[in-house]
Write a structure and sequence with these properties.
By secondary structure, the chain is mostly beta strands. Helices cover 4% and strands 39% of the residues. It starts with a strand and ends in a 13-residue tail after the last strand. It binds beta-D-glucopyranose. The site of beta-D-glucopyranose has 8 residues, from strand 23. Its main location: cytoplasm. Belongs to the aldose epimerase family. It catalyses: alpha-D-galactose = beta-D-galactose; alpha-D-glucose = beta-D-glucose.
Length: 322
C-alpha cells in the first residue's frame, strides 16, 4: 500500500506563500513533489543490491529552486519548448512573447508554470495541483485553468495534465525532470543505454527550431530504435549531445516511447505517453556551476530529460498540429 504525506518545504520571499512538499511512497519508489512549479525534487529507487539512490537532479532547499536554474523537475508551460521568434497567430491575431532564449521563447516565458505556486490537493495515491493562468499571462491569449496530477502505483508514476481555455490558445505541458540512473550527482550518463521508439525526428536550425523537415532516423545518429550506449554513441557520431524532438508513431492512447537502462545498478526507466513527440535532452547546457543536492555539482551530460510533448514550435509549423 502506498502513502502520501505533506510537509512545509519553504517560504517564498515577501510573503509569497508557503511551498509544501508531498511525499508519495510505494513499495518500489519514493517521490517528492513540491507545490512550486509542480516540481519533482526527488525520486528514490533501489538498485539490484537493494541500495536506494535519488535518481533526479535538484536542490536541497527552496532557495535552490528559486535561483536561475534549468527547470529541474518542473512542469513547464503554458507552452513547453521553443516558439520561433516568440510570435504566433491565433484566429488572425498576432501574439508576441518574451524572447527568454534569444531569438526564441522557451518553456512558457520569463515566468512560466515552473515559477509559480500551485494549489495542492492530496489524493489517496498522489497529489493534484491546479492553477488559473490569467488571460494574457506571459503574452498568451485567454485564461487557462490547469490541473496536473501525480499518482504513484508500485513502480509507475503517472503524470496527468488537463487544461481548459476560455479561448483558442497554444498549450503544451511536460515535466522537465533530469535523470541519472546511477544516482544524481554521478558525473555523467555515458554508461546509460537508450532506446527511443521513433522512426523520424525533427532536424533543427542553429537556434534549435525545427526546420520543417520530418527526417527518417535510419542510418543517422538519431536511430535509437535499438539500444545504444550513450557515451560511445555520442563519440561515434561526434555529437555534442541530443536536444531534439523524436516523432512518436503511437496513437493518442498511451504508448511506449523510450527506455533507459543503467546496467551497473540494474535501474530501468520506461516512458509511456499519449503525446506525439518526446524531446530527448542530454543536459548539454549543464556546466557544473549549480550546487545540487548532497553537494552534487552537475556538469554537462550529468542528466537526461525525456520530455513528452507536442512537437516544438507546433503553433507556427504546418502539419505539426496533431
Ligand atoms: C531544451 C533545451 C534547454 C533545456 C533547459 C530543454 O527542454 O530542449 O534546449 O536548454 O530545456 O532550458
Amino acid at each position: 500500500m502506498g502513502s502520501v504525506t505533506r510537509a512545509v518545504f519553504g517560504e517564498l520571499p515577501s510573503g509569497g506563500g508557503t511551498v509544501e512538499k508531498f511525499r508519495l511512497q510505494s513499495d518500489l519508489l519514493r517521490v517528492d513533489i513540491i507545490s512550486w512549479g509542480c516540481t519533482i525534487t526527488a525520486i528514490e529507487v533501489k538498485d539490484r543490491q537493494g541500495r536506494a539512490s535519488d535518481v533526479v537532479l535538484g536542490f536541497a532547499d527552496l532557495e535552490g529552486y528559486l535561483q536561475k536554474q534549468p527547470y529541474f523537475g518542473a512542469v513547464v508551460g503554458r507552452v513547453a519548448n521553443r516558439i520561433a521568434k516568440g510570435t504566433f497567430k491565433v484566429d488572425g491575431k498576432e501574439y508576441c512573447l518574451a524572447l527568454n532564449k534569444e531569438p526564441n521563447s522557451l518553456h512558457g516565458g520569463v515566468r512560466g508554470f515552473d515559477k509559480v505556486l500551485w494549489t495542492p490537493r492530496v489524493l489517496s495515491n498522489g497529489v493534484q495541483f491546479s492553477r488559473v493562468s490569467p488571460d494574457g499571462e506571459e503574452g498568451y491569449p485567454g485564461e487557462l485553468k490547469v490541473w496536473v496530477t501525480y499518482t504513484l502505483d508500485g513502480g509507475e508514476l503517472v503524470v496527468n495534465y488537463r487544461a481548459q481555455a476560455s479561448q483558442a490558445t497554444p498549450v503544451n505541458l511536460t515535466n522537465h525532470s533530469y535523470f541519472n540512473l546511477a544516482g544524481q550527482g554521478s558525473p555523467n550518463i555515458y554508461d546509460h543505454e537508450v532506446t527511443i521508439e521513433a522512426d523520424t525526428y525533427l532536424p533543427v536550425d542553429e537556434t534549435l527550431i525545427p526546420t520543417g523537415e520530418v527526417a527518417p532516423v535510419q542510418g543517422t545518429a538519431f536511430d535509437l530504435r535499438k539500444p545504444v550506449e550513450l557515451g560511445k554513441h555520442l563519440q561515434d557520431f561526434h555529437l555534442n549531445g541530443f536536444d531534439h524532438n523524436f516523432c512518436l508513431k503511437g496513437s493518442k492512447e498511451k504508448h511506449f516511447c523510450a527506455r533507459v537502462r543503467h546496467a551497473a545498478s540494474g535501474r530501468v526507466l520506461e516512458v509511456y505517453t499519449t503525446q506525439p513527440g518526446v524531446q530527448f535532452y542530454t543536459g548539454n547546457f549543464l556546466d557544473g556551476t549549480l550546487k545540487g543536492k548532497s553537494g552534487a555539482v552537475y556538469p554537462k551530460h550529468s542528466g537526461f530529460c525525456l520530455e513528452t510533448q507536442n512537437w516544438p514550435d507546433a503553433v507556427n509549423q504546418a502539419g505539426t498540429d496533431l
